[in-house]
Automatic annotation (TrEMBL), chain A:
<keyword id="KW-0808">Transferase</keyword>
<dbReference type="InterPro" id="IPR004622">
    <property type="entry name" value="DNA_pol_HolB"/>
</dbReference>
<dbReference type="Pfam" id="PF13177">
    <property type="entry name" value="DNA_pol3_delta2"/>
</dbReference>
<dbReference type="InterPro" id="IPR050238">
    <property type="entry name" value="DNA_Rep/Repair_Clamp_Loader"/>
</dbReference>
<keyword id="KW-0235">DNA replication</keyword>
<keyword id="KW-0548">Nucleotidyltransferase</keyword>
<protein>
    <recommendedName>
        <fullName>DNA polymerase III subunit delta'</fullName>
        <ecNumber>2.7.7.7</ecNumber>
    </recommendedName>
</protein>
<dbReference type="InterPro" id="IPR027417">
    <property type="entry name" value="P-loop_NTPase"/>
</dbReference>
<dbReference type="Pfam" id="PF09115">
    <property type="entry name" value="DNApol3-delta_C"/>
</dbReference>
UniProtKB/TrEMBL annotation, chain B:
<feature type="domain" description="DNA polymerase III beta sliding clamp N-terminal">
    <location>
        <begin position="1"/>
        <end position="119"/>
    </location>
</feature>
<keyword id="KW-0235">DNA replication</keyword>
<dbReference type="InterPro" id="IPR022634">
    <property type="entry name" value="DNA_polIII_beta_N"/>
</dbReference>
<dbReference type="InterPro" id="IPR001001">
    <property type="entry name" value="DNA_polIII_beta"/>
</dbReference>
<dbReference type="Pfam" id="PF02768">
    <property type="entry name" value="DNA_pol3_beta_3"/>
</dbReference>
<dbReference type="Pfam" id="PF02767">
    <property type="entry name" value="DNA_pol3_beta_2"/>
</dbReference>
<dbReference type="InterPro" id="IPR046938">
    <property type="entry name" value="DNA_clamp_sf"/>
</dbReference>
<keyword id="KW-0963">Cytoplasm</keyword>
<protein>
    <recommendedName>
        <fullName>Beta sliding clamp</fullName>
    </recommendedName>
</protein>
């Protein structure tokens, strides 16, 4: 399998990347390499595989066979140890100018193994304004063998000066069929379960996989989607808001714990855990405590971000529900994200008008904006559930 | 894989290799030290932090070929404390078992296939004595910038022209230049490299002190291993990734004609500057007034505490009042490696040159020059 094997339904993007990688190989061999670009912006909805695509391209640039998928270079890019790839994952909510300057410095200079020096910047939309300016300078005048791969949900998330200097690779939302197919063939998920999961995840392969394979993830989704029909009174709205915040916190905690456990165990092993001998049974060797503390600080900052992302995901699921409602109210014959809850969608569609539904989706958007602006989650979500409840008639009255 | 080796030899090699391991590895395998027994009975220990790679090669009496990756920190801790007896390391599945006398350790191994490929050593370019090299690098690296905003100001520039190596560094407030002779592989070899200053200083220190020669590996433009420089000595080698070779055109900054010259005892000058600077805030200047036979040092002003001190000086030329950042002045005095310090001036606002002083009839020793920018005094 080549490095592009994990990209689902992105044939167009893969074509662009393959051509660029062969131009890059030509440049490495001393040719003109026309068609190679030093700054790339990978965009696409969550789960479409922005960073997967960027990583595949990084491997294709560094592999002597342009991404064979099995040589040392491909393997090292895959596990994240290749000396010429710098992975940047802003673990906090933003990425500052100091870090960016250090990064720019690191990205300068010749590649260690002679091909390219690649910076893969996930969530590049999290750079602060100052950091973006520092980044811009580096992208404007890149050293001859440095390649920047930025990832962001959409091109509009990057300041125009950066965007205009990048070649944009847009990843589409993969079709339900393509995602279901991957779950069925690679993960052995029964076809009908795979289809439901794929529809519910709306093109996000990772999310679809979790929905198909993890009972808890399905339970939390059911919890979120029980909210529309539970909003019968003010007290119920407040309880529903509490439930929504709690569920998404649980979801975040589960994700955080899984990540933290692996990292902590790896670090502890570096400092002696699991090894035996005189002096090694008394805990970690020198430097271990400090390194663990540093790791915990990073993990805490990441946990804050994951919590926010998780609540946003729950809101997007609610949004998808009301989008289904609206589609039904307009009689559009589109595939419902909540095909498995068709009955509930119908009930809400009949009990309200399209205007109600639009107002409700606006309330959800408003809530997302307020959360992004650091409003306390319980307060923002309560305001939303109250808005979701009120019918248009009362509102206009 | 297995090998048996003398405890001191191993401990020293492990400690040396561990120096180049990253303090905060971005991936866990980078915390690993790679141990390889080759078919020809050598043990190679390597560490890599992406910028610098270090490798020691040792001869073995007993060994079975193979590779293993273990935590470098852990191995360094263990080998330090081993008793003075032969050490044996045997790889057994996912574990490496170290025995030495009655001591026995079982270390978890790391996935060696995930370990990054080490950079190739560029071709050998020439040799220089390790002690001369270490002291020359020390003299120049002092002027390299510590803050990492402009790469060219954090590096040491190495220019090779035949049998002459010129090292230069500047942080825009001072400039240090050192020339030394070496033995190039090719008589007309020419190359220019910008080496990260801190890394070069560490490397030169790590390879110095043995009295052996250091081999410098560097390709001329367009050759293999471009962008890397290698240093090796007595079975130890390092590679360092080079910076962009851009550097200020420094030769034109070095004045060739002077209006005055002052020779002072380095030791008393250093002590006097330190005492006077005690009252000065960080980065405030020490003012120097040179008159025939005497220099008056002064720091502090207005409400601040003031300090004044006078020193005898062998002075020749126009009287001058000039001020310097005391830290930069002290670092320069520490780098000239001479009992007599020579300062040469043009005007109070133009850079002064600090060199090792010599009796006038012996002529100037210009192997090492430390240019220092004066601080403009508001009158
Ligand atoms: Zn490959």
């Amino acid at each position: 399998m080549t490095v592009y094997g994990d990209l689902i339904g992105q044939d167009r993007a893969i074509g662009v990347l393959r051509r660029a990688a062969s131009a890059a190989a030509e440049a490495v061999a001393g040719g003109r390499g026309a068609g190679m670009t030093h700054a790339w912006l990978f965009t696409g909805p969550p789960g479409s595989g922005r960073s997967t695509a960027a990583k595949a391209f990084a491997a294709a640039l560094l592999c002597p066979e342009q991404g064979c998928g099995h040589c040392d270079a491909c393997h090292q890019v895959e596990v994240g140890s290749h000396p010429d790839v710098t992975f940047v994952r802003p673990e906090g909510l933003s990425y500052g100018v100091r870090q960016t300057r250090e990064l720019v410095l690191k990205a300068a200079g010749a590649p260690t193994l002679g091909r390219w020096r690649v910076v893969l910047f996930e969530d590049a939309d999290r750079v602060t304004e100052q950091a973006a300016n520092a980044l811009l300078k580096a992208i404007e005048e890149p050293p001859p063998r440095t390649v920047w791969l930025l990832c962001a949900p959409s091109a509009d998330d990057m300041i125009i000066t950066i965007r205009s200097r990048c070649r944009v690779v847009t990843l589409g939302t993969p079709s339900t069929e393509a995602v279901a197919n991957v779950l069925a063939t690679r993960d052995g998920v029964p076809h009908d379960v795979a289809l439901d999961a794929a529809r519910a995840a709306q093109g996000d392969v990772g999310r679809a996989r979790r929905l198909a394979l993890d009972e808890e993830t399905r339970r939390r989704r059911a919890e979120v989607l029980s909210i529309p029909r539970s909003l019968t009174g003010v007290a119920e709205c407040i309880t529903a808001a509490e439930r929504l915040v709690k569920t998404s916190t649980e979801d975040a905690d589960a994700a955080t714990t899984a990540l933290n456990e692996v990292e902590t165990a790896e670090l502890r092993r570096v400092y002696g855990e699991g090894s035996t001998g005189k002096g090694l049974n008394k805990g970690l060797v020198r430097g271990g405590a400090g390194a663990l503390k540093e790791l915990e600080t990073m993990q805490k900052s990441r946990a804050t971000r994951i919590k926010r992302d998780s609540l946003d995901l729950a809101l997007l699921e609610l949004m998808a529900f009301y989008r289904d409602v609206l589609a039904m109210q307009f009689g559009a014959s589109v595939e419902l994200a909540n095909e498995d809850r068709r009955h509930e969608v119908e009930t809400v569609a009949r009990a309200s008008t399209p205007e109600d539904t639009l107002r409700r989706t606006e309330a959800i958007m408003k809530c997302r904006e307020r959360l992004a602006a650091n409003v306390h989650p319980q307060i923002a979500v309560e305001a939303m559930t109250l808005a979701l409840r009120s019918s248009g008639v009362v509102h206009r009255g | 894989m297995m090998f048996r080796i003398d405890r001191d030899v191993l401990a020293e090699a492990v400690a040396w290799t561990a120096r180049s391991l990253p303090a905060r590895p971005s991936v866990p395998v980078l915390a690993g030290m790679r141990l390889e027994v080759t078919e020809d009975q050598r043990l190679k220990l390597s560490g890599f932090d992406y910028e610098v790679s270090a490798e020691v090669t040792l001869d073995l009496q007993t060994g079975e070929a193979g590779v293993v990756l273990v935590s470098g920190k852990l191995l360094a801790e263990i080998t330090r404390a081993l008793p003075a007896q032969p050490v044996e390391l045997v790889v057994d599945g996912a574990k490496a078992v170290v025995t030495c006398g009655s001591a026995r350790f079982t270390l978890l191994t790391m996935p060696v296939e995930d370990y990054p490929s080490l950079p190739a050593m560029p071709p050998a370019a020439g040799r220089v004595g390790s002690d001369v090299f270490a002291s020359a690098v020390g003299q120049v690296a002092v002027a390299a910038g510590k803050d990492d905003t402009l790469p060219m100001l954090t590096g040491v520039r190495m220019e090779i022209d035949g049998d002459t190596v010129t090292l230069a560094a500047t942080d825009r407030y001072r400039l240090a230049v050192r020339e030394l002779k070496w033995q190039p592989e090719q008589p007309g070899f020419q190359a220019v490299a910008m080496i990260p200053g801190r890394t070069l200083a560490d490397t030169a220190k790590a390879l110095g002190g043995s009295g052996a020669e250091v081999e410098i590996a560097l390709s001329s433009a367009g050759g293999t291993g471009e962008g890397m420089i290698g240093f090796s000595s007595s079975g130890r080698r390092t590679t360092t990734r080079l910076l962009d070779p851009e550097f200020p055109k420094y030769r034109s900054l070095l004045p060739t004609e002077f209006s005055a010259r002052a020779d002072l005892s380095t030791g008393s000058f250093v002590e006097a500057v330190k005492r006077v600077a005690l009252v000065a805030e960080r980065n405030t200047p020490v003012r120097l007034a040179f008159r025939g036979g005497e220099v008056v040092l002064e720091a502090g002003s207005g409400d601040e505490a003031q300090a004044v001190e006078a020193l005898p000086v062998d002075f020749d030329g126009d009287e001058i009042n000039i001020a310097f950042n005391h830290q930069f002045l002290l670092e320069g005095l520490g780098a000239i490696d001479s009992d007599i310090a020579r300062l040469q001036f043009t005007t109070p606002t133009k850079p002064a040159i600090l060199t090792a002083g010599k009796p006038v009839d012996e002529g100037a020793n210009e192997d090492y020059r430390y240019l220092i920018m004066p601080i403009r005094l508001s009158s």
